[in-house]
Amino acid sequence: MRIITGKYKGRHFDIPRTFKARPTTDFAKENIFNVINGYQDWEETSALDLFAGTGSISLELLSRGCRQVISVEKDRDHARFISQCMEKIGADDHILIKGDVFRFLKSCHQKFDLIFADPPYALQELATIPDLIFQYDLLNEDGLLVFEHGKHNDFSTHPHFLEHRSYGSVNFTLFR
C-alpha cells in the first residue's frame, strides 16, 4: 500500500497477508482523489474515514493536508495496523476509533467536510449508509460523502446524489 501524493508521497506500508480488508487500488484511489480535488480545499478539511480497513484512505487524506482525520475500524488487527502506520508518519491530527461504524454514526456529534465510506461490498446494510449519514446530519454544508461500493448498487435516484464514477470493479458514488 502506498501514499500517492502530498507530504507523505511514496511512503509504502506492507499489509499483513492475513488481512481480510482489500485496500482501494492505487488506480481507483488516484482517480477518485483527482475528482475530490475539485470539491475540497484540503487544508480546511475535517474528514471521516468509515470502515477504514488498512488506513489507506486516512493516510492519503492526511498526506494531502487535512486538518483532522478520524478513522473508524472495528477489526482489532486492522486498527492496530492503522495505529502503527500513523506512528510511522508521526501523524498528530489523526484519531482512531476502534469500534462499530453504525454505533459510531448514532453517537457522533461532529460534522465533517468529507466522509469517505468503504464498507465491505457484501455488507447487508451497505445501501443504508448514505441515508444514515444524512439522517444523523454528519456533513457540513457543502460537505461531500464519497461512498465506495460494488457494481450492483445504484444510488442515482438518491436525493443527495451528486455523481458516480467507476474504475474497473471499483465504484464510487458522491453525495452532497
From TrEMBL:
Q: Name one GO molecular function term.
A: 16S rRNA (guanine(966)-N(2))-methyltransferase activity
Q: Which Pfam families match?
A: Cons_hypoth95 (PF03602)
- Which EC number(s) does the record attach to this protein? 2.1.1.171
Annotated Gene3D superfamilies:
Vaccinia Virus protein VP39
- EC main class here is transferase
Domain of life here?
Bacteria
Q: Keywords of this protein's UniProt record, alphabetized?
A: Methyltransferase, Transferase
Entries under SUPFAM superfamilies matching the protein: S-adenosyl-L-methionine-dependent methyltransferases (SSF53335)
Sorted alphabetically, which InterPro entries does this protein's record hold? DNA_methylase_N6_adenine_CS, RNA_MeTrfase_RsmD, SAM-dependent_MTases_sf
State what protein this is by name: Methyltransferase
Organism whose genome encodes this protein: Prevotella fusca JCM 17724
Q: Which gene encodes it?
A: rsmD
